[in-house]
Write a structure and sequence with these properties.
- The chain contains ten helices and no strands.
- With 280 residues, it is mainly α.
- Helix 8 (198-215) packs across helix 9 (217-234).
- The longest helix has 37 residues, at 156-192.
- The protein is globular, with a radius of gyration of 22 Å.
- It is a multi-pass membrane protein.
């Protein structure tokens, strides 16, 4: 992430310098996504999700998501070009930012599924908080008289944001993983009801989710927890043997499918980190 402008400059000049960066456009995109999510959420709560404003808010949320992840992908691509590195299609497909960019575009042009917004919104909360702490607050904070130029001392607000991110990040990433699992079943339900385009959508989202499982320890942990709970429930003596057998068969099929589609076979065993990659 680019450093904030020097505090020795006038406030107006610092703000102009900050606003001229591509990183600031990334920040604005995440803020727009959050406001759009809140506006759409209000319409949903009031059972007015088919209104014009609800539709605009929903689409704007995914336009903002596509813009933010597009900026990150572009910056990463430009950095690789400067270093003379050219990744292939498989290498690009393993980039989490490329995956989320692709899904943002898919949701943008698909029928409304409110649950699809929430993972992007959770990510945006932490992206906005991190940028505010690292760039916006230092830019607004004037250097004390006689102080040497450099990074200003963190304010109380900055420290509060830092504590918030540190305390809630892991739990929120687990929440995102659970939301993405729930979203898969939501899309599967649409496919079973033969809603228009749902089978194509479940195929695309399954590929995306398979990549998330390979790269995110949070997704892996959430699936393990949910599987353990299901095992405990079905272990009850009152559960019909046919149901337990069906559950074991389902798990076996899923494991075989996961092994057959392990993307690490094609990229030399490298995977991403446990959380969303931050823009640099």
């Amino acid at each position: 992430m680019a450093p904030p402008p020097p505090t020795a400059q006038p406030l107006g000049q610092r703000l102009v310098s900050l606003a001229q960066t591509l990183q600031f456009a990334w920040f604005v995109g995440h803020v727009t996504l959050l406001f759009s999510t809140l506006r759409y959420g209000l319409s949903y709560i009031l059972f007015n999700f088919s209104s014009r404003w609800a539709k605009v808010s929903y689409r704007l949320a995914f336009i903002s998501a596509a813009a933010t992840y597009g900026i990150v992908v572009y910056k990463a691509y430009r950095a690789r070009m400067r270093q003379g590195k050219q990744g292939g299609l498989v290498s690009m497909a393993t980039d989490e930012n490329v995956q989320y960019l692709g899904m943002a575009l898919v949701w943008l042009f698909s029928r409304q599924i409110p649950l699809a917004i929430l993972p992007f919104a959770v990510y945006s909360i932490f992206h906005v908080a991190t940028y505010t702490r690292a760039n916006l607050l230092p830019t607004l904070q004037a250097a004390p008289a006689g102080a040497s130029p450099g990074k200003p001392k963190p304010s109380g607000i900055s420290e509060t944001i830092g504590k918030f991110v540190k305390e809630y990040y892991d739990g929120s990433m687990t929440l995102v993983a659970i939301l993405e699992i729930a979203l898969w079943f939501r899309v599967l339900g649409s496919a079973l009801l033969f809603q228009k385009g749902s089978w194509i959508l479940i195929g695309i989202y399954t590929v995306f989710f398979r990549a998330r499982y390979a790269q995110s320890t949070f997704v892996q942990g959430a699936i393990s927890q949910l599987t353990a709970r299901a095992d405990a429930q079905l272990a009850n003596q009152s559960t019909p043997p046919a149901v337990r057998q069906g559950w074991e068969t389902f798990k076996s099929i899923v494991r075989q499918a996961a092994d057959a589609t392990d993307i690490r076979r094609y990229v030399g065993g490298q995977t991403g980190g446990p959380g969303p990659k931050k823009a640099q």
